[in-house]
Every structure is written in structure tokens, then in C-alpha cells.
């Protein structure tokens, strides 16, 4: 199957403060690298990074990596536009795995687990990782689900649509990586302590 990986890296991350959290180095490389490397190391056919805020700096941070870029000129309005920009860049894909740039614990193996579950469930609209009953990220969205995503606006992701949809496959996970993101400086501090 033709599955693309979309890494959302366009947001302003206002809760973090003035610095672009995705560009802060953790373990010798920008935080964003972790999500991009998970996508590149997976079975996804290609990786698309959605840019917006700090576009030039994000592209520079990823220089040399085999990724494509999808600009979201309306990044300030929120996640919906970034998701739609990524979908437009992957319009020929059978599905997309949407990764958030601020989730450092996501691995290529996790992405592959979603792709495997999708291939084993023909006709499913989405595949979502679950930890102790809580849905997390990344998520795999089938092409058949793309039109519903075009109805999103503002700072809204696919969560509500997925909660209402049938044909969603849940994949149990054995760690908290799917629930752990870096929203505030304290989150980054906790990550560096690990």
C-alpha cells in the first residue's frame, strides 16, 4: 500500500513560550528530528513535513533528510489547515500516518504497527494507537476519510471526527509514547531527565 507519513511542524507552540520548541536540541539534535526519523525509518513510502511558523529554520534543521515540504500559509489559524496541507501533498496515497512534531517517543516500529493493522483491516477508515483505554498519536487515516477532514477548521484535529466514525481500528500499545508530547518547558525538562 502507498502510505505517506505527514509530520505536522507548522504550529507556533505558544504554550511553550517564545522559542520554537521543535528546534530545541535534545540529545544533540532538534526535537523535530525524532518524529521525522520515526517516519523515515518506517515503511511509509515518503515523508512530508508541513511547515508554517519558522519555515526557513525548520527546513534548515531538516536539511539533508529525504523529506518533502508542504507549506501551510494559514498556520496561525491552527491544526486543521496544517492537516489539510499535508493531505493535499499526499493526495495520491492510500492513507497517511499523521505524526506530531513534538512527540519524541514515537518510533518507526510504532508507525509500522499502524500500517500493519491498516493492511490487515481492509475498508477501515483509521487506525489509532491506544494505551490503557486512551487514544493517542500518531494516527493512520485512510484515503476514504480525507473528505471528512476537509470539513475541519481552526485549531481542530481529527479527534472529534474519529470519535464519531465507524471503521476505526484500535491498536493497543505498551508504553506512554503515544500520549506524551512537549507542550511546555517542564515537559522538555522531564524529557531531558530521561
- Share in helix: 25-40%
Tell me the radius of gyration: 15 Å
Distance between the ends: 36 Å
Q: Per DSSP, what share of the residues sits in E-state strands of 2 or more residues?
A: 15-25%
Number of helices: 7
Overall average residue pLDDT: 90
Structural class computed from helices and strand pairing: alpha/beta
- The succession of helices and strands, N to C, reads EEEHEHEHEHEEEHHEH
Low-confidence stretches: none
Q: How many β-strand runs?
A: 10
Description of the structure:
The protein is an alpha/beta fold and 194 residues long. It is built from seven helices and ten strands. It has helices spanning 31-40, 55-61, 79-89, 108-119, 146-149, 159-164, 185-193; strands spanning 3-8, 25-26, 29-30, 46-51, 68-71, 95-100, 126-131, 134-135, 139-142, 168-172. Strands 1, 4, 5, 6, 7, 8, 9 and 10 form an eight-stranded mixed sheet that branches. It is globular. The N and C termini lie far apart (36 Å).
